Amino acid sequence: MRRGIVALGELVIALLCLVGAVSSWGNGVVTTAFAPVGELPAFESTRYAAPWVVLAAFLAAVAGLFAIDAAARLLRSGATASAGD
To answer: How far is it, in rounded angstroms, from Cα 64 to Cα 5?
Structure first.
């Protein structure tokens, strides 16, 4: 019972980390549009802000670790319950 509650909490944390990762990635990609000037054509430039991208990667990794641990807890609690039958 306790393992299931902890696993649920870990899954919630993993989901929050993924939401944060998506948000961080969105902040880390900056697109700038340049208007045509004389003979030069218009173009768009994309710049990646390293701190935001690193934060997104870190949060995705943490979410993965929490999800793996939650799955392990659920599988162990299932194996313990079936062994007791």
So the answer is: 18
25-72 per-position pLDDT tens digit? 999 999 999 999 999 999 999 999 999 999 999 999 999 999 999 999
* Burial (Cβ within 10 Å: 0-12, 13-18, ≥19) of residue 25: middle
CB-based contact 43:32 (threshold 8 Å): no
Reported pTM: 0.79
Cα–Cα distance measured from residue 14 to residue 72, given in angstroms and rounded to the nearest whole number: 14
